[in-house]
Every structure is written in C-alpha cells, then in structure tokens.
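Field reference: sequence -> structure
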Amino acid sequence: MTPARKTSSGAGSMARLAAEFGPLLVFFLVNAKFGIYAATAAFMVAIVIALGYTYVTERRLPAMPLITAVFVLFFGGLTLYLQDEIFIKIKPTIVNLLFAGLILGGQIAGRSALKLVLGHMLHLDEKSWRILSLRWAGFFVLLAALNEYVWRSYPTDIWVSFKVFGILPLTILFSLAQTPLILRAAKRLEAEGKGD
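Structure field:
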C-alpha cells in the first residue's frame, strides 16, 4: 500500500466519520431544545446533507451509510406522520439486525458481504474475512439488543444521548479492537507474496 493511498483512505475515513457524527449531533442538540419530533425532522435533513457531502468528497455513496439513511428517512417519516416516537427508536435495532443478517447470510452463501463493502480498503485472506464477518455480525446483534434495552428502560432524552454518545464510541472501539486481526492477516499475505 503506497503512502498516497493511505492518506486518501484516512481523508475518506475522516469524511465518513464527520458525515455520520454530524447528523447524530444535530439530532442530539435539536432534541435537547425542541424535543424528539423536531429532532427527527432535523436528523432526516442532516442525513441527506451528509450523504451529499460524502458523495462530493468520495465520488461514491458507501453502502452502509446509504442503507442507514434510507431507514432514517423511512422510520423518521413514520415517526413524524404518525406522531409516534417508537419508529425512530426501533430504527437502530432494525438496521443493526439487517446488517448482522446480511453478513451472516453472505457467510452461509459463501460470499463475504463485509469483503464486498471493505475489500477496497482491507486486504485479508478468506479465513480472516470470515472471522471479521462473524465478529461484526455479533457486534451488530449486541448493538440491536442494547438499543432495545435502553429505549424500553429509560426516558427518550437518555436514549438520544445513548444513540449519539454511546453507539458511535462503541463502534469505534470495536473497530480498533479488530486491528490485530487485520495486521496479522496483512503480514501473512505479505509473507506469501500476495500483499500490495
């Protein structure tokens, strides 16, 4: 992997992080001032802007943010139309279970869904893709369970805070925890002469 490619990947990662955290921050701030329905509307607008920003900076729309945006617009629309906050609250559960299902379904079918999404950034052997896929599927199920527990057990403001300041940091920490697996796989491929 060349240094230029690393820089480009780093810039892309920062753009994705800003595009993901920006709408969540808008959601949190508007909820604190105006409540869940105004926050849902602002979240929907912010996520469309974030998608546009991602497209402008990367010249493509990554699959996971695009799927998430579709669900935000759908469940946010139901929340506003029916004036029932349950729809925006169950959205993370459904999205995380969908991601887990896609990853596990890909494994059963003999195709790594994770490799399709991340294969342009990571170079791993098939065993490592399988391990990484199972870990991410388990993590998505855990996030779904946590979301269900928090929204059912605590007031809306606590759930919003968890969604903004709990899920994203947990995801970042989990991603970082996968670094040893990724580095070991890269070393193996390099030793076998299959690396970049």
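Note: The chain has one domain: 3-191.
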